[in-house]
Automatic annotation (TrEMBL):
Cofactor (UniProt): Zn(2+)
Entries under CDD domains matching the protein: EcFpg-like_N
Organism: Candidatus Kaiserbacteria bacterium RIFOXYB1_FULL_46_14
Domain Formamidopyrimidine-DNA glycosylase catalytic stretches: 2-131
EC number, as in UniProt: 3.2.2.23, 4.2.99.18
Catalytic function, reaction form: 2'-deoxyribonucleotide-(2'-deoxyribose 5'-phosphate)-2'-deoxyribonucleotide-DNA = a 3'-end 2'-deoxyribonucleotide-(2,3-dehydro-2,3-deoxyribose 5'-phosphate)-DNA + a 5'-end 5'-phospho-2'-deoxyribonucleoside-DNA + H(+); Hydrolysis of DNA containing ring-opened 7-methylguanine residues, releasing 2,6-diamino-4-hydroxy-5-(N-methyl)formamidopyrimidine
Cross-referenced SMART domains: Fapy_DNA_glyco, H2TH
Residues that hold DNA according to the record: H109, R128, R169
Cofactor details (free text): Binds 1 zinc ion per subunit.
Stretches assigned to the FPG-type domain: 254-288
UniProt-recorded name of the protein: Formamidopyrimidine-DNA glycosylase
Assembly notes: Monomer.
Signal peptide range in chain numbering: none
GO MF assignments: 8-oxo-7,8-dihydroguanine DNA N-glycosylase activity; class I DNA-(apurinic or apyrimidinic site) endonuclease activity; damaged DNA binding; zinc ion binding
Amino acid sequence: MPELPEVETVRVQLWSKLSGQMISRVEVFNKKTVGSDTSFGRKLKGLTFADINRVGKLLIFSFHKKPELYLLGHLKMTGQFFFVDKKGELTGGGHEVSAADTNHFPNRHTRVAFHLQAGGALYFNDMRLFGYLRLADSKDLEETHARFGPEPIALDFDKEKFASALKKRKSSIKAVLLDQSFVAGLGNIYVDEALFYAGVRPTRRADKLTKKEALLLADGARDILLEAIKHGGTTFQHFIDAEGKRGNHTEHLQVFGRQGKACYRCGGTIKKTRVAGRGTHYCPDCQR
């Protein structure tokens, strides 16, 4: 599943294509994707994209002269935005697909199509139908924001508050970091990487971390996410960016996907186990 760096990469690159574009019509091919909202296309027709923001891994599209209407989009595991310009040139971001799935649009995995007045279209494809597109008003958006914790890369992220909040959590530190209501944007890859950075074993109870460890963990989460954004995200089987390029942060990973290999820090062997229901990578010598 794309995590914060991958979604941020898609956000920036989609905006380069959609800035100032007006929606001329909307086709919904699968009502589940839009929450069975029969007014979805009608409400978006004629609107011009004003901005694309993000909270955690959720994309938020806003529109000119419609301050009370937003489009929320989540890629989940296999979601993908494809932009096809009026010349037929394709860019896409999210879940990686085969060439056969990009030969024509709409295709078998297309769930929604946004046709643009200037030509071209934005397609939302989702093979497994876990992703979604929803319309929201200001109240809905406020409630959505309230469900997310602070992001480690935010300028106002409070490390001291983060450290104090961990003391109230008795779950494993990995489970706590995966909880989007506690801290937003961290997924399986970057939780493992941040814990390695801080020298904290994923199975440790969150309330047992020292303040020094907690502050180091906050620093690690921030630095690792920013570095991954700079590299365009991490690519395994599911992610390409909105320029059709694979993220190249993979070579910078310290533990994730490196089970059985030597730790770059101590030379020990990276292990893989299961924590909080997720495959988890760590160094048993570096992480306590």
